[in-house]
What does this fold into?
Amino acid sequence: MSNSKITEVETLRQTYPEPKGSSLDKVLYELDHHCINFISRSPFLVLGTVGDVSPKGDNPGFVRVLDSKKLLLPDRSGNNRLDSYQNILSQPTIAIIFFIPGINETLRIRGKGEITMESKLLAPSALKNKVPESGLIVHVREAYLHCGKAIIRSKLWQSTDNLDDFSVRDMFADHAGRDRSEFKEYYDGAMEKTKIDEGHK
It folds into this structure.
């Protein structure tokens, strides 16, 4: 049996040709007005750190553009695992994908992360007069628009199939070793509290 494991870029490129044209030309090294506009309309992103990915969301524009090479992602209350932050402290390389509901294209950012607790910097990101405990400064190295093929293929923005037989709460409860009915009450209460506390209701 031949070895099908790929271990070198040269071998990989025998199957996949080098990118060219707009795939390379579209890459920016700082944010232009299009990128800034996209970020201002985005209520959701996925943050990638070395060894982890984490969803982040809030009202559109919750990520603030500090300048053409710097963003601020405020930290909102969560589970206190701090996986992303701990990864950044050991290896600051990060990547972000910004989404706008209903738009098939996404905005990709690559750069380095820096954790800040500077109150003056975080104050404009307050919700209901509560200033975030910390924030992530993103030092932008690359920015580019990603085509909509993945969103189109997944039909992400279209109505979902019938999910009556699928319960995320049961999945949560089983993974955590909790009683399903008790966990559902706890989880729904926690989500409702978040909506109220952060002004999403």
The two ends are 59 Å apart (CA to CA). The chain has eight helices and seven strands.
